[in-house]
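User: Please fill in residues for this 51-position structure.
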């Protein structure tokens, strides 16, 4: 049972992450993360302006 739990919790490879980011329209995983972090920062700024 422990082997199954470790397999489930293992982080995907860089190659897998790059492929997933391509499906989302980005060149690689790092571009996707930069865009994601940028969106969160913009949302936080918008929340501060409203509040």
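Assistant: Residues filled in for all 51 positions:
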């Amino acid at each position: 049972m422990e082997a199954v739990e470790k397999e489930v919790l293992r982080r995907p490879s860089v190659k897998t992450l790059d492929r997933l980011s391509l499906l989302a329209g980005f060149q690689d995983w790092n571009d996707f993360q930069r865009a994601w972090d940028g969106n969160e920062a913009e949302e936080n700024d918008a929340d501060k302006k409203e509040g």
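For context: The mean pLDDT is 80.
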